[in-house]
Amino acid sequence: MDKKAMKKILAFVKMLKAPAQMIPYIISLVIIFVQRHVDNDKAAAVKVDEQGFVCRKNSSIAGGCGSPAVAVEPDGGIAVVFACSRVVGGVPLYSLCLCRGSEPAKLALAKREFIFDSPMQLGNVTATATPYGLLISWRSKLASKLHLPETADKDASRIWRERNAERYAQLSDDEKRGGTYYALLPYNSSATIVAQKAPCSFVQRAVMLSDNEVLWMGECEGTAVAYVSADKCKSFTKRGAVPAIPGGRTVSQVSCAKLKNGRLICIFSSMGELFISYSDDMGVRWSLPHMLNVKGVSPDLCVRGDGVAVLNYVQPDKKVSLRSMISLDGQYKWLEERALVISTASNCRKPYTVEAGDKFMTVSRQRFVGDSGSSVVFTLWSPHKDDEARIKEITAEASGKKKSKKSRK
Question: 233-253 b/e with 16+ CB inside 10 Å = b?
Fold first, then answer.
């Protein structure tokens, strides 16, 4: 979009006399409308019931926030964990932040609990509600750029970097190499977590196979691998692996879910395309992966209580969009691609979704016009009306078949 068009949009927003904190959001909506028209993006949008911020850059968070994950705890409350950068005791650090609430719209006002700090950059955050606590994982790596307070001048910036380097020097050699870590946080606890090294790279939630067994799908040396814990997440052992994609393509960004019939489904990205595989023996053996014919990265799977599965992902061809597809049973038939979250920036990333009654709640990272740092946004949504109608139709057909069988008996 050219500068002249931008000035017109800014003038329009000023006329609205909107609160200053909402101006970037409103500008983004206008740009999105124009950009979708220019790009000829014909994907119909899901029904968005509510959307807002979980976290935005503020005085206590120096470089913005991102890589969010969400879980529904046993009491029905919503827990969102995300990565951010801040200054702790005069030292610039990266942190994991936890906020809990009963309603999505109130999360932005919820108490912030910083449960882990590191001089290294944090990302790929996950959260899974288990019977024994909130299972959290994250990736740690050496920061290519240290996010500093905007008020820091040249001399102050040098001091900040030196303090961060001093904290980094205190890490063990293994910690300095980075990798994926995990921890179990008891419910109703605000204690800091104790990190354990994960056996592979996890980027999405684990799956409860039973009250005593947790399965986690991740990526290890370019392969999708299943790990299981039967000791309340104290350790994970390898159970099985998805066969290699023909042609030697490597795997990244693995997501897994348990279908209503007990079958496990695994979807992952390879070279910007999505592949799917299934397991009928709790992750020991997996089917040969086949292509979904969908361009996407960062797949995110969620299965609703009625068996309806949703697949969300970043659409790489449309750098401003997160996309969504619905399956009535999570298996072979996926309905039309829909637009889920649309951003004006190229760093709209990492959808992470949970069931919210008869709706879905997705959190994602997004940067709005005028913001130097990214924000964490929630979207409470329902399937597109055509998809919802199809779901109701199939449900009615299944119910009719059950009644017919009972009457014959």
Answer: beebeebbbbeebeeeeebbb
Rounded Cα–Cα distance for residues 217 and 266 (Å): 8
* Residue of 109, 70, 115 whose CA lies nearest to 94: 115
What integer pLDDT is reported at residue 18 of this predicted model? 46
The answer to whether the CB of 336 falls within 8 A of the CB of 323 is no
CA distance 282 to 286: 9
Q: What is the pLDDT of residue 17?
A: 46
Q: How confident is the model at residue 27, as a pLDDT?
A: 54
65-72 and 121-130: which strand pairing? unpaired
Residues of the chain with pLDDT under 50: 1-2, 9, 12-13, 15-18
**Cα 241–243–247 angle (5° rounding)?**
140
In Å, what is the CA distance from 344 to each residue of 9, 117, 196, 219, 320?
A: 14, 31, 37, 30, 6
pLDDT of residue 168: 94
Do the Cβ atoms of 35 and 320 come closer than 8 Å? yes
| E runs forming strands in 263-320 | 264-270, 273-279, 290-295, 297-303, 309-314
Residue 246: predicted pLDDT:
83
Tokens of 132: 């024994």
State the sign of the Cα–Cα–Cα–Cα dihedral 15, 40, 364, 85.
negative
State how beta strands 223-229 and 349-356 pair: unpaired
Predicted confidence at residue 287, as pLDDT, reads 96
Question: Could you count the other beta carbons within 10 Å of the beta carbon of residue 378?
Answer: 25
Q: 257: exposed, middle or buried (C-beta count within 10 Å: 0-12, 13-18, 19+)?
A: buried
Number of Cα atoms under 13 Å in the Cβ half of residue 232: 6
Give the percent of the chain with pLDDT over 70: 81
Task: Specify the pLDDT at position 12.
Answer: 46
Tell me how far apart the alpha carbons of residues 84 and 343 are, in angstroms, rounded to a whole number.
20
| Per-residue pLDDT, 160 | 87
